[in-house]
Protein backbone atom coordinates (compact mmCIF):
# COMPACT_ATOMS: atom_id res chain seq x y z
CA UNK A 1 0.00 0.00 0.00
CA UNK A 2 1.97 3.07 -1.22
CA UNK A 3 0.13 5.61 0.92
CA UNK A 4 -0.07 3.70 4.21
CA UNK A 5 0.25 6.83 6.37
CA UNK A 6 -2.19 9.00 4.35
CA UNK A 7 -5.71 9.66 5.59
CA UNK A 8 -8.16 10.85 2.93
CA UNK A 9 -11.23 13.00 3.56
CA UNK A 10 -13.67 13.47 0.70
CA UNK A 11 -17.27 14.68 0.52
CA UNK A 12 -19.48 17.53 -0.61
CA UNK A 13 -19.42 21.26 0.17
CA UNK A 14 -19.95 22.62 3.70
CA UNK A 15 -19.48 19.19 5.30
CA UNK A 16 -16.46 20.28 7.38
CA UNK A 17 -13.62 18.51 5.53
CA UNK A 18 -11.11 21.38 5.72
CA UNK A 19 -11.64 21.98 9.43
CA UNK A 20 -11.34 18.31 10.26
CA UNK A 21 -8.17 17.80 8.20
CA UNK A 22 -6.58 20.77 9.97
CA UNK A 23 -7.56 19.55 13.45
CA UNK A 24 -6.27 16.05 12.74
CA UNK A 25 -2.95 17.35 11.46
CA UNK A 26 -2.53 19.65 14.47
CA UNK A 27 -3.34 16.98 17.03
CA UNK A 28 -1.37 14.15 15.48
CA UNK A 29 1.69 16.09 14.36
CA UNK A 30 0.75 15.36 10.77
CA UNK A 31 1.19 17.00 7.39
CA UNK A 32 -1.86 18.95 6.27
CA UNK A 33 -2.88 18.78 2.63
CA UNK A 34 -5.67 21.33 2.85
CA UNK A 35 -8.17 22.54 0.28
CA UNK A 36 -6.51 23.17 -3.12
CA UNK A 37 -3.17 21.87 -1.86
CA UNK A 38 -2.36 20.85 -5.44
CA UNK A 39 -1.69 24.58 -6.04
CA UNK A 40 1.81 23.94 -4.68
CA UNK A 41 2.60 21.50 -7.51
CA UNK A 42 6.14 22.58 -8.39
CA UNK A 43 6.08 22.33 -12.20
CA UNK A 44 4.28 24.51 -14.75
CA UNK A 45 1.10 22.96 -16.11
CA UNK A 46 0.49 22.33 -19.77
CA UNK A 47 -2.85 23.77 -20.92
CA UNK A 48 -3.58 20.80 -23.16
CA UNK A 49 -3.06 18.23 -20.44
CA UNK A 50 -4.64 20.32 -17.68
CA UNK A 51 -7.33 22.50 -19.34
CA UNK A 52 -9.40 22.84 -16.14
CA UNK A 53 -6.59 24.08 -13.92
CA UNK A 54 -5.12 26.25 -16.67
CA UNK A 55 -8.49 27.88 -17.26
CA UNK A 56 -8.27 29.67 -13.91
CA UNK A 57 -4.50 30.12 -14.14
CA UNK A 58 -4.82 31.99 -17.44
CA UNK A 59 -8.08 33.81 -16.67
CA UNK A 60 -7.91 37.55 -17.30
CA UNK A 61 -11.29 38.56 -15.92
CA UNK A 62 -12.73 36.52 -13.06
CA UNK A 63 -16.22 37.76 -13.89
CA UNK A 64 -16.08 35.29 -16.77
CA UNK A 65 -15.67 32.52 -14.21
CA UNK A 66 -18.99 33.28 -12.52
CA UNK A 67 -20.87 34.05 -15.74
CA UNK A 68 -20.58 30.53 -17.13
CA UNK A 69 -23.73 28.44 -17.43
CA UNK A 70 -24.41 25.99 -14.58
CA UNK A 71 -23.65 23.11 -16.94
CA UNK A 72 -20.31 24.63 -18.00
CA UNK A 73 -19.42 25.25 -14.35
CA UNK A 74 -20.23 21.65 -13.40
CA UNK A 75 -18.20 20.29 -16.36
CA UNK A 76 -15.24 22.45 -15.32
CA UNK A 77 -15.45 21.24 -11.70
CA UNK A 78 -15.49 17.59 -12.84
CA UNK A 79 -12.55 18.13 -15.18
CA UNK A 80 -10.59 19.99 -12.52
CA UNK A 81 -11.19 17.23 -9.97
CA UNK A 82 -9.76 14.73 -12.45
CA UNK A 83 -6.69 16.88 -13.02
CA UNK A 84 -6.18 17.55 -9.31
CA UNK A 85 -6.20 13.82 -8.70
CA UNK A 86 -3.33 13.39 -11.15
CA UNK A 87 -1.26 16.09 -9.42
CA UNK A 88 -2.05 14.88 -5.91
CA UNK A 89 -1.02 11.33 -6.76
CA UNK A 90 2.27 12.72 -8.05
CA UNK A 91 2.84 14.76 -4.90
CA UNK A 92 1.73 12.32 -2.22
CA UNK A 93 4.61 9.81 -2.35
CA UNK A 94 7.16 12.44 -1.30
CA UNK A 95 4.95 13.64 1.55
CA UNK A 96 4.22 10.10 2.75
CA UNK A 97 7.92 9.26 2.65
CA UNK A 98 8.45 11.74 5.50
CA UNK A 99 6.89 9.14 7.78
CA UNK A 100 4.40 11.46 9.51
CA UNK A 101 0.66 10.98 9.06
CA UNK A 102 -0.64 12.92 6.06
CA UNK A 103 -4.18 14.30 6.21
CA UNK A 104 -5.58 14.93 2.75
CA UNK A 105 -8.63 17.11 2.07
CA UNK A 106 -9.28 15.93 -1.45
CA UNK A 107 -11.60 15.18 -4.34
CA UNK A 108 -9.73 12.03 -5.37
CA UNK A 109 -12.40 9.71 -6.73
CA UNK A 110 -13.89 6.87 -4.73
CA UNK A 111 -12.71 4.45 -7.41
CA UNK A 112 -9.10 5.57 -7.08
CA UNK A 113 -9.20 5.61 -3.28
CA UNK A 114 -10.34 2.00 -3.29
CA UNK A 115 -7.07 1.09 -4.97
CA UNK A 116 -4.59 3.38 -3.17
CA UNK A 117 -5.80 3.96 0.41
CA UNK A 118 -4.94 1.71 3.33
CA UNK A 119 -7.93 -0.02 4.96
CA UNK A 120 -9.74 2.40 7.26
CA UNK A 121 -7.97 5.47 5.82
CA UNK A 122 -10.87 7.06 3.92
CA UNK A 123 -13.63 9.14 5.47
CA UNK A 124 -16.55 10.68 3.59
CA UNK A 125 -18.10 13.85 5.05
CA UNK A 126 -21.48 14.92 3.77
CA UNK A 127 -23.80 17.86 4.31
CA UNK A 128 -27.39 17.81 3.15
CA UNK A 129 -27.22 18.89 -0.54
CA UNK A 130 -29.53 21.82 0.20
CA UNK A 131 -27.18 23.02 2.96
CA UNK A 132 -24.12 22.59 0.68
CA UNK A 133 -25.69 25.04 -1.76
CA UNK A 134 -27.50 27.44 0.59
CA UNK A 135 -24.56 27.97 2.93
CA UNK A 136 -21.78 27.76 0.36
CA UNK A 137 -20.63 31.33 0.97
CA UNK A 138 -21.01 31.23 4.75
CA UNK A 139 -17.37 30.36 5.13
CA UNK A 140 -14.59 32.78 5.85
CA UNK A 141 -12.04 31.37 3.40
CA UNK A 142 -10.71 33.94 0.98
CA UNK A 143 -11.63 32.05 -2.18
CA UNK A 144 -15.36 31.82 -1.33
CA UNK A 145 -15.49 35.42 -0.21
CA UNK A 146 -13.75 36.56 -3.39
CA UNK A 147 -16.37 34.81 -5.53
CA UNK A 148 -19.14 36.25 -3.40
CA UNK A 149 -17.83 39.78 -3.96
CA UNK A 150 -17.64 39.15 -7.71
CA UNK A 151 -21.28 38.11 -7.77
CA UNK A 152 -22.27 41.28 -5.92
CA UNK A 153 -20.36 43.36 -8.50
CA UNK A 154 -22.42 41.96 -11.39
CA UNK A 155 -24.97 44.31 -13.07
CA UNK A 156 -27.78 42.10 -11.76
CA UNK A 157 -26.37 40.48 -8.58
CA UNK A 158 -29.55 38.50 -7.86
CA UNK A 159 -29.56 36.92 -11.31
CA UNK A 160 -25.81 36.26 -11.11
CA UNK A 161 -26.24 34.62 -7.72
CA UNK A 162 -29.11 32.49 -9.01
CA UNK A 163 -27.03 31.34 -11.97
CA UNK A 164 -24.14 30.44 -9.67
CA UNK A 165 -26.42 28.60 -7.26
CA UNK A 166 -27.74 26.46 -10.11
CA UNK A 167 -24.17 25.38 -10.81
CA UNK A 168 -23.67 24.58 -7.13
CA UNK A 169 -26.87 22.52 -7.20
CA UNK A 170 -25.56 20.44 -10.09
CA UNK A 171 -22.28 19.82 -8.29
CA UNK A 172 -23.83 19.14 -4.89
CA UNK A 173 -26.72 17.11 -6.25
CA UNK A 174 -28.75 14.53 -4.36
CA UNK A 175 -27.40 11.99 -6.83
CA UNK A 176 -23.82 12.83 -5.88
CA UNK A 177 -24.75 12.71 -2.17
CA UNK A 178 -26.32 9.25 -2.59
CA UNK A 179 -23.35 7.99 -4.59
CA UNK A 180 -20.92 9.01 -1.85
CA UNK A 181 -23.20 7.73 0.89
CA UNK A 182 -23.19 4.25 -0.60
CA UNK A 183 -19.53 4.23 -1.69
CA UNK A 184 -18.55 1.70 0.97
CA UNK A 185 -16.45 4.04 3.15
CA UNK A 186 -17.38 5.36 6.62
CA UNK A 187 -19.52 8.51 6.44
CA UNK A 188 -19.91 11.43 8.85
CA UNK A 189 -23.02 13.48 8.21
CA UNK A 190 -22.87 17.16 9.13
CA UNK A 191 -24.55 17.69 12.47
CA UNK A 192 -24.90 21.27 13.73
CA UNK A 193 -25.26 20.05 17.32
CA UNK A 194 -21.87 18.33 17.28
CA UNK A 195 -18.78 20.31 18.28
CA UNK A 196 -15.59 20.32 16.21
CA UNK A 197 -13.88 18.33 18.99
CA UNK A 198 -16.63 15.69 18.90
CA UNK A 199 -16.28 15.41 15.13
CA UNK A 200 -12.53 15.07 15.60
CA UNK A 201 -13.05 12.24 18.10
CA UNK A 202 -15.39 10.43 15.69
CA UNK A 203 -12.89 10.77 12.86
CA UNK A 204 -10.04 9.53 15.06
CA UNK A 205 -12.09 6.47 15.87
CA UNK A 206 -12.81 5.83 12.19
CA UNK A 207 -9.14 6.29 11.29
CA UNK A 208 -7.93 4.23 14.26
CA UNK A 209 -6.05 7.22 15.68
CA UNK A 210 -7.42 7.15 19.22
CA UNK A 211 -5.00 6.79 22.06
CA UNK A 212 -5.43 3.02 22.21
CA UNK A 213 -2.52 0.79 21.20
CA UNK A 214 -2.70 -0.36 17.59
CA UNK A 215 -1.42 -3.86 17.10
CA UNK A 216 -0.74 -5.91 14.02
CA UNK A 217 -2.25 -9.33 14.77
CA UNK A 218 0.97 -11.23 14.02
CA UNK A 219 2.82 -9.18 16.63
CA UNK A 220 0.78 -11.13 19.19
CA UNK A 221 3.02 -14.07 18.28
CA UNK A 222 6.24 -11.99 18.19
CA UNK A 223 5.52 -10.67 21.70
CA UNK A 224 5.35 -14.17 23.13
CA UNK A 225 8.98 -15.08 22.49
CA UNK A 226 10.59 -11.66 22.22
CA UNK A 227 14.10 -11.62 23.66
CA UNK A 228 15.26 -8.11 22.83
CA UNK A 229 16.48 -8.68 19.28
CA UNK A 230 15.24 -6.66 16.35
CA UNK A 231 15.93 -4.38 13.42
CA UNK A 232 17.67 -1.53 15.30
CA UNK A 233 18.36 -0.33 18.83
CA UNK A 234 15.53 2.19 18.59
CA UNK A 235 13.20 -0.55 17.40
CA UNK A 236 14.05 -2.99 20.21
CA UNK A 237 13.82 -0.26 22.89
CA UNK A 238 10.40 0.69 21.63
CA UNK A 239 9.09 -2.83 21.12
CA UNK A 240 10.28 -3.81 24.59
CA UNK A 241 8.42 -0.79 25.97
CA UNK A 242 5.18 -1.76 24.23
CA UNK A 243 5.42 -5.34 25.53
CA UNK A 244 6.16 -4.12 29.06
CA UNK A 245 3.25 -1.67 29.02
CA UNK A 246 0.82 -4.34 27.84
CA UNK A 247 2.12 -6.91 30.31
CA UNK A 248 1.67 -4.48 33.19
CA UNK A 249 -1.82 -3.49 31.99
CA UNK A 250 -3.24 -6.60 30.28
CA UNK A 251 -6.73 -5.10 30.39
CA UNK A 252 -5.59 -2.41 27.90
CA UNK A 253 -7.78 -2.32 24.81
CA UNK A 254 -5.81 -2.90 21.63
CA UNK A 255 -7.01 -2.20 18.10
CA UNK A 256 -6.09 -5.05 15.77
CA UNK A 257 -4.95 -3.51 12.53
CA UNK A 258 -3.53 -5.03 9.36
CA UNK A 259 -1.38 -1.96 8.69
CA UNK A 260 1.44 -0.11 10.46
CA UNK A 261 0.95 -0.34 14.23
CA UNK A 262 2.48 0.90 17.47
CA UNK A 263 5.48 -1.41 17.01
CA UNK A 264 6.08 -0.46 13.37
CA UNK A 265 6.31 3.23 14.39
CA UNK A 266 10.00 2.83 15.21
CA UNK A 267 10.95 0.16 12.68
CA UNK A 268 13.45 0.95 9.91
CA UNK A 269 11.43 -1.30 7.59
CA UNK A 270 8.49 1.07 7.94
CA UNK A 271 8.84 3.41 4.96
CA UNK A 272 6.16 6.04 4.78
CA UNK A 273 3.79 3.90 6.82
CA UNK A 274 4.25 0.80 4.70
CA UNK A 275 6.24 -2.26 5.74
CA UNK A 276 8.92 -3.23 3.25
CA UNK A 277 7.73 -6.83 3.66
CA UNK A 278 4.08 -5.84 3.35
CA UNK A 279 2.91 -8.94 1.45
CA UNK A 280 4.49 -11.30 3.94
CA UNK A 281 3.34 -9.56 7.13
CA UNK A 282 -0.17 -9.06 5.75
CA UNK A 283 -0.28 -12.82 5.17
CA UNK A 284 0.78 -13.40 8.79
CA UNK A 285 -1.80 -10.89 10.04
CA UNK A 286 -4.64 -12.46 8.07
CA UNK A 287 -3.72 -15.94 9.30
CA UNK A 288 -3.60 -14.82 12.95
CA UNK A 289 -6.97 -13.07 12.68
CA UNK A 290 -8.46 -16.14 11.07
CA UNK A 291 -7.06 -18.57 13.64
CA UNK A 292 -8.10 -16.38 16.57
CA UNK A 293 -11.57 -15.51 15.30
CA UNK A 294 -10.95 -11.76 15.16
CA UNK A 295 -11.24 -9.34 12.28
CA UNK A 296 -9.32 -6.23 11.24
CA UNK A 297 -10.37 -3.33 13.49
CA UNK A 298 -11.55 -5.43 16.44
CA UNK A 299 -10.61 -4.01 19.84
CA UNK A 300 -10.21 -6.77 22.42
CA UNK A 301 -8.46 -6.38 25.76
CA UNK A 302 -4.82 -7.33 25.25
CA UNK A 303 -5.20 -10.24 27.70
CA UNK A 304 -8.02 -11.75 25.59
CA UNK A 305 -6.08 -11.36 22.39
CA UNK A 306 -2.88 -12.82 23.87
CA UNK A 307 -4.83 -15.76 25.34
CA UNK A 308 -6.32 -16.63 21.96
CA UNK A 309 -2.95 -16.41 20.25
CA UNK A 310 -1.54 -18.78 22.85
CA UNK A 311 -4.41 -21.28 22.79
CA UNK A 312 -5.38 -21.28 19.15
CA UNK A 313 -1.98 -20.82 17.50
CA UNK A 314 0.96 -21.55 19.77
CA UNK A 315 -0.50 -24.38 21.85
CA UNK A 316 -2.23 -25.75 18.75
CA UNK A 317 1.11 -25.96 16.94
CA UNK A 318 0.07 -23.61 14.14
CA UNK A 319 2.76 -20.97 14.51
CA UNK A 320 5.29 -22.36 12.11
CA UNK A 321 2.67 -22.82 9.42
CA UNK A 322 1.83 -19.11 9.72
CA UNK A 323 5.24 -17.43 10.02
CA UNK A 324 7.80 -20.18 9.50
CA UNK A 325 9.48 -18.12 6.75
CA UNK A 326 10.14 -15.20 9.13
CA UNK A 327 13.81 -14.31 9.63
CA UNK A 328 13.32 -14.57 13.41
CA UNK A 329 11.76 -18.04 13.24
CA UNK A 330 14.64 -19.73 15.08
CA UNK A 331 13.99 -17.65 18.20
CA UNK A 332 10.36 -18.73 18.45
CA UNK A 333 11.07 -22.33 17.37
CA UNK A 334 13.46 -23.01 20.24
CA UNK A 335 10.79 -22.20 22.81
CA UNK A 336 8.55 -25.15 22.04
CA UNK A 337 8.36 -28.29 20.06
CA UNK A 338 6.48 -27.63 16.87
CA UNK A 339 5.48 -29.79 13.94
S1 LIG B 1 9.07 -5.54 9.86
FE1 LIG B 1 7.18 -4.57 9.06
S2 LIG B 1 5.51 -5.43 10.32
FE2 LIG B 1 7.44 -5.85 11.40
S3 LIG B 1 7.66 -4.12 12.82
FE3 LIG B 1 8.80 -3.60 10.95
S4 LIG B 1 7.33 -2.43 9.72
FE4 LIG B 1 6.14 -3.50 11.29
Describe this protein's structure.
The protein is of the alpha/beta class and 339 residues long. The chain has 2 domains: 202 residues, Rossmann fold (3-Layer(aba) Sandwich), CATH 3.40.50; 121 residues, no CATH class. It is 50% helix and 9% strand. The chain has 16 helices and 9 strands. Strands 2-3-1-4-5 form a 5-stranded parallel β-sheet, with helices on both faces. A two-stranded parallel ribbon has the order 6-7. Strands 8-9 form a two-stranded antiparallel ribbon. The longest helix is centred in the N-terminal third of the chain and has 27 residues. The protein starts with 5 loop residues before the first strand and ends in a 6-residue tail after the last helix. The relative contact order is 0.13. The chain binds iron/sulfur cluster (SF4). Iron/sulfur cluster binds next to loops.
Through-space gap between termini: 33 Å
Give the overall form: elongated
Number of strands: 9
- Number of distinct helices: 16
List each distinct ligand once: iron/sulfur cluster
Helix content: 40-55%
Number of domains: 2
CATH class term of the largest domain: Alpha Beta
Query: How much is the radius of gyration in Å?
Result: 24 Å
User: What structural category characterises the helix and strand content?
Assistant: alpha/beta
- N-to-C SSE string, H for helix and E for strand: EHEHHHEHEHHHHEHEHHEEEHHHH
Fraction of residues in β-strands:
5-15%
Query: What is the CATH topology classification name of the largest domain?
Result: Rossmann fold
The main sheet orders its strands as 2-3-1-4-5
Low-confidence spans: none
- Average residue-wise pLDDT: 92
User: What's the CATH architecture of the largest domain?
Assistant: 3-Layer(aba) Sandwich
Largest sheet: 5 strands, parallel
Amino acid sequence: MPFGNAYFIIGNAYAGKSTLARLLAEKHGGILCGENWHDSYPEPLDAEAFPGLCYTRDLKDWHEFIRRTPEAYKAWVDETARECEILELRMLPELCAQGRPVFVDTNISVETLKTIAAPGHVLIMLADPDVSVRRFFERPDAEKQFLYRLLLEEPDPAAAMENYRKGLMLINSQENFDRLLSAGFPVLLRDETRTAEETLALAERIFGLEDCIRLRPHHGMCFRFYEGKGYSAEFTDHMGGVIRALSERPDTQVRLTCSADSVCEHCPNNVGGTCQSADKVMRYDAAVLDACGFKDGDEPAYADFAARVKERILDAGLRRGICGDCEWDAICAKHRREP
